[in-house]
Fold this protein.
Amino acid sequence: MIKIRSLVKKYGDHIAVDNLTLDINENEVFGLLGSNGAGKTTIIHMLATLLKPSSGSATVNGYDIVCHPAKVRSSIGIVFQAPSSDDMLTGYENLQLHSMLYSIPRHTRKQRIDEVLKLVGLTERRHDQVKTYSGGMRRRLEIARGLLHKPKVMFLDEPTLGLDPASRETMWRYIQRLVREEKMTVILTTHYMEEADILCDRIGIIDKGRIVALDTPKGLKAGLGGDIIRIKTRYNPDKISQLDFVHKVEQSNGFLVLSVNNAKRDLPMLLRHVEAEIVEFASPTLNDVFIHLTGRKMKEEQPEGGFAEKYAKYD
Amino acid sequence: MAKVYALWLREFKVFLRERSRLVASTFTPILWLFVIGSGLGSAAPSELPPGVDYQQFIFPGIVSMSIIFTSVFYGSYIIWDRKFDFLKSVMVAPVSRTTVFVGKTLGGMTNSLIQATILLAIGVAMGIPFTPLSLAQAAAVVLLMSFGLTSLGLALGSYMYSLEGFQMIVSFVVFPLFFLSGALFPLDNLPEWLSVLTAADPATYGVDALRNLMLGTGTYGVELDLAILVGYTAALGAFGVYSFGRMKAV
């Protein structure tokens, strides 16, 4: 659906996007994960024909981004980092304006607007001015706008940036819903590890304008060697290491540290064989992957608790 | 065409909802008309055409002033659109830059026309001898002028990224356009240097055309005014289209 070949964007001496080559498949949710200033938005802006590449090429839905910008634009929907609707208009009017800009035929306009409003849960508020909307609602209106013309590709540039945790989770549900119901290729950028993990089929980790890793969230984490279970037990470590799902056993501070593929699946099995006083487990997070790959933490503050802890809490 | 209509409709709705904008920009010309008109009128220059008092004399000038200010100021809305990323959302749609420009310009012309209409109504009340024909002709001149000046404002705005920068345009473009247009004084006995400047000001021909139509007196004659105005307007429109074409999207 998207083919990027040796794409470069320079601003003077600064190289924002450095020789990027990447293929994104149809109906895939692809995440560009990286810290602020890594070049994610620049990539999106080039693919959306808002910026001209310094060199290299890319096609979206089969159309070259430099030679056929109008065709590319008709194929894509985009949600920018900052909401871009007109505050003074109502949600409905904003959608009406854009449905005309995208030449949606008059007789299907109203029906399509109602559809997308329903999809993002804004039907009730459609006749209120956008200035009365909350941050999350504005973001959802942007998504509705991006969906109006049934684009083949949807770009979501930091779709939950600046939202509170509750709105962020609501947003995730809407994004998952649109992936399910509208069947399109989605490219999202984010610097929230958790977000990329939950939403994306594949993730490209971007650092200084380059892709430093490209895999499924699972694959990226597996690259670090699976999950870890820590137990306090009187059992013989040698006996535990004979269990077939345990890769490695180490002792540390009176605990046994076991490496396993999937702690959540393997823990109950382990407890069938072993009596333990204390059990803890952790999964490597994309954060760990990022540190492993770039040698530093993401610039942005991470929410309290790793991914595994959160899941342990929710399940 | 539907795209131009959509963009215009947005401008029009926003204009109707921001009443304070309309009130403020209508109040200033009225202030000029009555305070400057009466104040300076009591010491009126003897050069005024016979049978026309100073307040009547400056009336076409004040209508022009409203057009100049509204139209050029309107250029700042392109900066707002950019600031709030609305512009980006339009640029990423399959819409040509010229379409964006035309939609925006029609919005500005509509604003100017509404304000001029309010002033023309005041003019009727003041006893300016209008006929239905001369009113319609005056409206046409208003539209022509505001097309040119809105284009100018939008073109200049398209190069700017901050509203503070646009303030400079007010000092260096709006006020000279207004003061040099002969809105407040007759053009006939000016010093040489000043008459060169007034002759170069596009607004001069708008003021003169309106004065011809409303008061039956003027410097150049309405045909010449219109010809020059059309020339200026076409050039400014082209400048606007060119500027929007090279405007950066992000």
User: Anything to note?
Assistant: Chain B has eleven helices and no strands. The mean pLDDT of chain B is 92.
